[in-house]
Amino acid sequence: MARTKGSDSKLTELRIRKVALNLFSQHGYSAVSMRKIASKADLQVGALYLYTPNKQSLLFDLLKTHMDSLLKNWVVENIEAAPDKRLKIFTKFHIRFHINRVEYVNISYNELKNLTEENFEHVNSLRSEYEKSLEEILTFGRDQGYFDIKDVKLTALAIIAMLNGVLKWYRTDGRLSLCDVEEIYSEMAYKSVMIIDN
Predict the structure, then answer these.
(1) pTM assigned to the model
(2) Residue 49: per-residue pLDDT
């Protein structure tokens, strides 16, 4: 139904975003129509266009918002410390931040290809900025004699891929607590790059 007089437009915007996020994550961007989004958000299609010009704008807004939040929260977590400690802080942060944002992760990795060139460049630059923060930790650790790394960029991508794997299987009612998982994975990430004394 259309927005009624006096209703909170901000709440409607949030509902539209939530619906779009869920549908894009479950069915894929290409399979979701504006009509479907409107229906799930309890709006007429015409009313939906009062809040967003098109489906592309919705996708871009969701991806940009996710990356902006990720970078903002990482800046808060990122502290001056020894490289091994900073790497563990990064791995724990990454898991904790994303564990309740699985739908955002799904569209971040599956729907980038559906952005326009301009929107893709913007979102990808934010992703690169986040990945670069891990690369800087690894480079610093290598240069300080903490880490044994042949290719920093490839190592950073491998660590992030490993951490993202947690999102596919972790359950709050599982055998391990989130703190346990963060600790184990941070240790694995560290051991994958640490210098082993002979």
Answers:
(1) 0.87
(2) 92
As a whole number of angstroms, the distance between CA 34 and CA 37 comes to 5
Asked whether residue 118 is assigned to any structural domain, the reply reads yes
Q: Are both 81 and 165 inside the same structural domain?
A: yes
177 belongs to a structural domain: yes
Name which residue leads in pLDDT, 91 or 76. 91
34-64 residue pLDDT tens: 999 999 999 999 999 999 999 999 999 999 9
| Spatial separation of the C-alpha atoms in residues 168 and 72, rounded to whole Å | 24
Question: What is the structure's pLDDT at 2?
Answer: 45
Write out the residue range of the structural domain in which residue 142 sits: 55-193
Residue listed under structure tokens 């299987």: 169
What is the full DSSP assignment across the chain?
A: -PPPTT--HHHHHHHHHHHHHHHHHHH-GGG--HHHHHHHTT--HHHHTTT-S-HHHHHHHHHHHHHHHHHHHHHHH-----HHHHHHHHHHHHHHHHTT-HHHHHHHHHSGGGS-HHHHHHHHHHHHHHHHHHHHHHHHHHHTTSB--S-HHHHHHHHHHHHHHHHHH--TTSSS-HHHHHHHHHHHHHHHHBPPP-
If pLDDT is split at 50, 70 and 90, which confidence band does 197 have?
low
Identify whether 124 is part of a domain. yes
CATH number of the domain encompassing residue 28: 1.10.10.60
Q: Is the pLDDT of residue 96 over 60?
A: yes
